[in-house]
Amino acid sequence: MKIIDKKYFLAACVLLIAIFSFKINAQPIKPRQLLKKVEASISLLNNVTYKINKSEKFFTQRDTVYDVAICSLYMAPKDEMKFYHIVDIKSSYKNTYTHYQYDGKYASGFWYKADSLNIPKKIFFHSVVEDGYDRLYSMGSSVILRNIFQKNNIFKQARSFLARFAIAKFEVKEQIFMENPVYVLSIYGKSREGRVDYVNNEVYTIYIRKSDFLPIGYKNYGELEGMKKYEYYEIEYLAINSKLSVEDFKVNTNLKEVKPLIYYERFQQYIN
Fold first, then answer.
1. Does pTM surpass 0.85?
2. 123-135 confidence digits (pLDDT tens)
3. In sequence order, what are the residues at sequence separation of 6 or more whose Cβ sits closer than 8 angstroms to the Cβ of residue 130?
4. Could you give the strand order of the β-sheet that contains 215-224, starting from the edge strand earlier in sequence?
């Protein structure tokens, strides 16, 4: 029997090892490892400014609402809202623009339309010391993304003991999303047939940028009593851990009205 030349035998071994190593490296990251990495990446954020394009339809709604917003968040874990924030939103609902601001003590806001930019708008104020926090949850909450950026976010919750009773399975895939290589994390909720108050067939899909493990997209789908809901958004980070300070978020309670033009023009610079 012919003996294989040592030179060719070694070359074949090296090739087999290289192929085996490539297959190992090409395997997607495990879901729990990915959750930990995303959670760690978010924990490093002190402040963040992002643009969000969002579409959503809740169970009882007939039409889909489309929003585009610019959001600046300053992390405040001990605050009830978890962030001080400045938010500008353009909504397809009644074609309105809204500006919100919150500094931990006061919230302010006003709304306007593009055909009334030079008409002074009255600013409304809300004191959390006097009136509590309930009203704040409706002030720009749909684009502030608490489920992603707060300390107890969806990634941490998905690794908790209680999550095993609500989550059926995880899946991780890889693809290109918004021109970025991403991990696609899908979280499937357990169905509860027969419970009218429980959302069935619920799926959360999160697009996680490989370069820094930050979420850049999100989808959610669910069914309730024959009705369907869905939510989708894309995130573009404009600044991460910039020079923003607490003072930048202070609400000026002495300013009672404002002409929206300056807010509109600043907003247009980001969305056009």
1. no
2. 999 999 999 988 8
3. none
4. 124-127, 106-112, 96-102, 83-91, 65-75, 47-57, 227-240, 215-224, 200-209, 180-189, 167-177
Strands (E) in the chain, as ranges, are 47-57, 65-75, 83-91, 96-102, 106-112, 121-122, 124-127, 167-177, 180-189, 200-209, 215-224, 227-240, 257-258
Q: Which CATH number fits domain 31-269: 2.40.30.60, 3.40.50.11930, 3.10.50.40, 2.50.20.10?
A: 2.50.20.10
Burial class (CB in 10 A: 0-12, 13-18, 19+), 54: buried
- Token output for 25: 């490296």
**Residue type at position 244:** L
Q: Are 169 and 28 in contact (CB under 8 A)?
A: no
Sign (positive or negative) of CA dihedral 226, 192, 30, 234: positive
Q: List the one residue out of 129, 81, 91, 137 whose CA is nearest residue 111.
A: 91
CA dihedral for 232, 114, 255, 257, sign (positive or negative): negative
pLDDT in tens, 56-94: 877 667 778 899 999 999 999 999 999 999 999 999 877
Residue in the block written with tokens 């006003």: 110
Task: Retrieve residue 13's tokens.
Answer: 């071994």
